[in-house]
Write a structure and sequence with these properties.
The longest helix has 24 residues, at 49-72. The protein has helices spanning 3-25, 28-35, 39-45, 49-72, 77-94, 96-114, 122-138, 143-162. The protein has 182 residues and is an all-alpha fold.
Length: 182
């Protein structure tokens, strides 16, 4: 396996480990073990735990961005909105680690910022801004629609993370395509 293929394995393993345990509680030993490499080899691929975390978080956001772009491609207005909402809902239901990784990422960046480390989240803000821009274009350049769509996405994250069942009243105001599957 090439170093690039191993790096890819590390990113996938890191998403799993960080999604489950968060930044502080995840050890690089656990990531190395999941990949089947030694910690020294892991650190030849990535210089430190922070770099591994950021690569995993960036991948999670980039995967989400790609899902939204693909869903909205060639569509406009309500069709684009509905397709992207449905695609996002399927993403977090079909790959729960994406949802958990997002939530861990937001917590880790907030903790770093509170400790005075603004640089920690800079690359993640860049990827998130790219996602905002793509959603904005897909929704016809309407700032209110973009804000509303992404705000609903964050609400979906919260409700799904809290485990509200699909038939609970808190989902009543969502587009049908954005509600969790039965």
């Amino acid at each position: 396996m090439s170093a690039e293929e191993r790096r890819e394995c590390v990113v996938r393993a890191a998403i799993t480990e960080f999604a489950r345990s968060g930044y502080n509680a995840t050890s690089t030993e656990a990531i190395a073990r999941r990949v089947g490499v030694s910690q020294p080899y892991l650190f030849r691929l990535f210089p430190n735990k922070q770099t591994i975390f950021l690569a995993a978080a960036e991948r999670c956001l980039e995967d989400t961005r790609k899902v939204l772009v693909a869903a909205g491609e060639g569509l406009e207005g309500e069709e684009a909105l509905s397709a992207m909402a449905g695609a996002y809902q399927r993403l977090i239901v079909d790959d729960g680690e994406k949802l958990m990784m997002q939530m861990q990422m937001y917590a880790a960046v907030a903790a770093a910022e509170a400790a005075g480390d603004r640089a920690f989240g800079e690359s993640l803000r860049t990827v998130w801004e790219r996602m905002w821009g793509d959603v904005h274009i897909a929704l016809g350049g309407d700032v209110d629609e973009t804000t509303s769509f992404l705000a609903y996405g964050m609400l979906i994250n919260t409700l799904a993370s809290l485990g509200f069942p699909s038939d609970h009243r808190v989902w009543a105001g969502f587009h049908l395509s954005a509600r969790p599957a039965e």
